[in-house]
Every structure is written in structure tokens, then in C-alpha cells.
Amino acid sequence: MEIIAHGIDLVDFPRIEEMIERHGDRFLNRVFTNAEREYACAHRNSVEKYAGRFAAKEAILKLVGTGWRGKIAWTDVEVLNNPAGRPEVRLSGEVKEIADNLGIKQIGISITHTASFAIASAVALAQSDEKKRV
Predict the structure, then answer these.
(1) Which H or E run contains 37?
(2) Strands 104-113, 117-126: parallel, antiparallel or unpaired by DSSP?
(3) Is the pLDDT reported for residue 28 higher than 70?
(4) Which contacts of 110-117 are long-range, i.e. CB under 8 A and separated by 24 or more positions?
(5) What's 2-126's CATH class?
(6) For 65-111, what is each residue's pLDDT tens digit?
(7) For the purposes of burial, counting CB atoms within 10 Å of the CB of 43, is it exposed (0-12), middle (13-18) or buried (19 or more)?
(8) How do the domains of the chain map onto residue ranges?
(9) What is the pTM of this model?
């Protein structure tokens, strides 16, 4: 496996909190999968969890080179924690198709938080003989 692309994003909590207050479930349902919403709601600091997932989605869209446009849906990127608590990425829809075309076999993600910000860094991994320029 070889790293072929990287994406990073920074999100401030007030931005996500404002979107939730202004748009409520409409925003949450458009951006986050059911499992992501359940994860965030299971924590007392749900805004922090939403901000981390939002930053992760943005970082992943940067590494596939598209940003959010066209047929891409926010829910095409799902970030869930494995039993050990490590975040993992599941792609679907248009984003999965783009990643497959680029030869991306796996995406590693790291999310961290400060008092006011969430930061996510994502790396795309491909087989050395299958990689395409991102």
C-alpha cells in the first residue's frame, strides 16, 4: 500500500452549533448518517462529535479532489468508530465511485479536538501498481 493523497480540514464548534440551531434535523439528516447521529447523540459533547465528523468528511472530499459538488452527497462519506474507538471511513455513492476510479483501496482518518475546534486528517492508500494521480 502506498499513500497517494492527503486531505485536512479544521472546523470550529460554533459554526456547527449555529447550523444545528438554525436548521436542526434538516442539516443533521443532510450531512450525517443515522449511525453518525446516534454516535454524536450518545455523547454529552455532541457538537464536538459532529464537528469532528464534518471535518473528516471535508478532508476526505479534498483527498479525492472534488470538494462537495455535483452528485456527491455528504452521507456518501460515513465516519464510524471501530470497537477500540478508532475512526474508520465507509464510502458509498458518487464518492465511492470516484475513489475506486482513483485506485483508492483504503482511507486512514485521524480526528482531534481542542476546546473550540475539530481537526481531521485523511490519507488515501492504494496498491502500488493500481495508483492513479490524484
Answers:
(1) helix 34-41
(2) antiparallel
(3) yes
(4) 111/52, 111/53, 111/55, 111/56, 111/79, 111/87, 112/52, 113/48, 113/51, 113/52, 116/12, 116/13, 116/14, 117/10, 117/11, 117/12, 117/13, 117/51
(5) alpha beta
(6) 887 777 899 999 999 999 999 999 999 999 999 999 999 999 999 99
(7) exposed
(8) 2-126
(9) 0.91
